[in-house]
């Protein structure tokens, strides 16, 4: 499976955010991605701690926060897992989310790789998503 | 949760006062940055990271045309925030931006926040821009409609009170004196809604057009009235309330005027359940009573003492009356003028009357260009009693709203 095949959400979102495609805009997107990749592991650690502590309210809030940050950049795998964790926390079934932090760590690592590829393509002037025929 | 606000001055460094402003609210900073980027350079964008910060921004950094709020935030969620915005800033178009696309959220957003649109996260740039463009248009339409309504209301009231002036210069002048006193009292007491209370003061005298001249004369001079004539005076607020009862945006004014009616034939207040209206009724009653005492030739000090003795006036209103009369009586000194010597800005101190006794201009009226024209016209038709007495404004005195 190619990288482009596993990250359509990321590529579509970044393509959508590229309005002018100029240097300033590319720098903005790089900064946005860097901010997410720096903050997401911290947010995940906070979620992990809340799940481990069995604190449903805090877990729901933290899952929601990470979901919003991930969805904002098209990281649909992370956003989907967080939505599920949030739903379980809200329903008082936090015990069913014990495996989510591990899955989220893998999804975040993969997202990091996909971002590296996409930003590389962007800097090389390669198309981010196939243009419609 | 931080209440810090960031203003994003992106790309375009200078915005004019015409540039529409958008308030973005989300507890995730990268979402705020992304939305700001997506919106481009056509708007001034202000951000807040929670509901309290957003309400503060609306008060201090507005006016805003549009607010886009996240749904799930700590302390105050997006629906609650947009509900506050609807009440405090009804002209601002409201958009909910949420990852929670469930039916319950949508129902609450529509019923409580009366949102204009519901955007799902992450929102594509084209959809966001189209929605904001439509929201701006909605804001423009609402603002234009409001402006037309304001102007219609303002000019209609001017016309209505202009009719009072034509029908009864004495009653109009008395209404003006009461309005000026009410305005000064409101400012002294730090009350909001001053225009509504001033309009209620003018409106409270509209019923004077139904009074026989002899009763109007006694009213204007503050003279005691027999029961049948007092009933005519007591009916005045009801007449004004009937005249204004169906006018949009005057609901509080009508309530204030209604509050002046004696209940059950006794001089007790009709119960009202709005604190602003209750206070306004108290201020207006004090002003009307004070005006009656002064018209009777009672000094301001004695009038306030007598009103205090009546026991049915607001203590705060009487204290404010004492403070403002203490200042104004020292500043005012009436002087005699020929009609041709009157100038714009002077205040008529005694009624201007024709030699046959007809009152042409009531005392207390401020001289305007229009009033000078009217006096010139009167002089061609009837002989005026001269000199006339007027107060020359002290240039150092604070301006009183007309």
TrEMBL record, chain A:
Gene Ontology terms describing biological process: phosphorelay signal transduction system
Domain HPt, residue spans: 25-122
Pfam name, any one: Hpt
InterPro entries in alphabetical order: HPT_dom_sf (IPR036641), Sig_transdc_His_kin_Hpt_dom (IPR008207)
Keywords, in A-Z order: Phosphoprotein
Keyword Cell inner membrane: no
Domain of life: Bacteria
Residues with Phosphohistidine modification: 64
Name used for this protein in its record: HPt domain-containing protein
Source organism: Planobispora rosea
Automatic annotation (TrEMBL), chain B:
Superkingdom as given in the UniProt entry: Bacteria
Any Pfam family hit: HD_5
InterPro entries: Bact_response_regulator, CheY-like_superfamily, Sig_transdc_resp-reg_receiver
Keywords, comma-separated and alphabetical: Phosphoprotein
UniProt entry tagged with the keyword Transmembrane: no
SUPFAM superfamilies with a match to the protein in the record: CheY-like
Domain Response regulatory: 21-136
GO biological process: phosphorelay signal transduction system
In-chain residues carrying the UniProt-annotated modification 4-aspartylphosphate: 70
PANTHER family, sorted: STRESS RESPONSE REGULATOR PROTEIN 1, TWO-COMPONENT RESPONSE REGULATOR-RELATED
Protein's name according to its UniProt entry: Response regulatory domain-containing protein
Species in which this protein is naturally found: Planobispora rosea
């Amino acid at each position: 499976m190619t990288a482009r095949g596993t990250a359509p959400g990321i590529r579509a979102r970044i393509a959508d955010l590229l309005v002018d495609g100029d240097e300033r805009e590319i720098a903005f997107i790089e900064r946005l991605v860097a901010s997410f990749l720096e903050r997401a592991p911290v947010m995940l650690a906070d979620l992990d701690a809340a799940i481990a502590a069995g604190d449903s309210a805090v877990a729901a809030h933290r899952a929601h926060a990470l979901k919003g940050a991930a969805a904002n950049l098209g990281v649909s795998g992370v956003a989907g897992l967080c939505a599920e964790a949030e739903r379980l926390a809200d329903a008082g079934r936090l015990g069913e989310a014990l495996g989510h932090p591990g899955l989220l760590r893998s999804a975040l690592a993969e997202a990091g790789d996909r971002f590296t590829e996409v930003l590389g393509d962007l800097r090389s002037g390669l198309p981010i998503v196939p243009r419609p025929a | 949760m931080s209440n810090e606000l960031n203003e994003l001055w992106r790309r375009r460094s200078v915005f004019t006062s015409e540039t529409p402003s958008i308030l973005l609210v989300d507890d995730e900073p990268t979402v705020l940055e992304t939305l700001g980027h997506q919106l481009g350079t056509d708007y001034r964008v202000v951000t807040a990271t929670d509901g309290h910060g957003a309400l503060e921004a609306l008060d201090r950094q507005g006016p805003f045309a549009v607010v886009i709020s996240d749904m799930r935030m700590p302390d105050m969620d997006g629906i609650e925030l947009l509900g506050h915005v609807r009440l405090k800033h009804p002209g601002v178009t409201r958009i909910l931006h949420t990852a929670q696309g469930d039916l319950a959220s949508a129902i609450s957003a529509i019923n409580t926040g009366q949102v204009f649109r519901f955007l799902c996260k992450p929102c594509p740039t084209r959809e966001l821009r189209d929605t904001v463009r439509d929201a701006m248009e909605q804001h423009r339409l609402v603002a234009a409609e409001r402006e037309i309504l304001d102007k219609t209301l303002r000019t209609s009231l001017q016309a209505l009170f202009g009719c009072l002036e034509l029908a009864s210069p004495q009653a109009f002048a008395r209404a003006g004196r009461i309005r000026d006193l009410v305005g000064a009292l409101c400012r002294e007491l730090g009350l909001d809604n001053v225009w509504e209370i001033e309009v209620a003061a003018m409106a409270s005298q509209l019923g004077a057009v139904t009074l026989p001249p002899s009763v109007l004369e006694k009213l204007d001079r503050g003279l005691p009235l027999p029961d049948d004539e007092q009933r005519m005076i007591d009916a005045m607020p009801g007449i004004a309330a009937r005249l204004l009862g169906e006018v949009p945006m005057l609901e509080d004014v009508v309530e204030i005027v209604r509050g002046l009616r004696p209940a059950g034939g006794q001089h007790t207040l009709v119960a009202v359940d709005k604190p602003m209206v209750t206070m306004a009724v108290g201020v207006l009653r004090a002003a009307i009573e004070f005006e009656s005492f002064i018209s009777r030739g009672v000094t301001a000090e004695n009038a306030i003492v007598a009103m205090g003795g009546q026991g049915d006036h607001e203590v705060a209103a009487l204290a404010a009356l004492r403070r403002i009369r203490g200042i104004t009586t020292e500043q005012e000194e009436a002087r005699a003028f020929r009609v041709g010597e009157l100038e714009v800005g002077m205040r008529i101190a005694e009624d201007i009357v024709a030699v046959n006794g007809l009152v042409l201009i009531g005392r207390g009226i401020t001289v305007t260009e229009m009033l000078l024209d009217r006096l010139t016209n009167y002089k061609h038709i009837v002989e005026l009693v001269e000199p006339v007495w007027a107060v020359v404004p002290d240039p150092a005195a604070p301006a009183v709203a007309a």
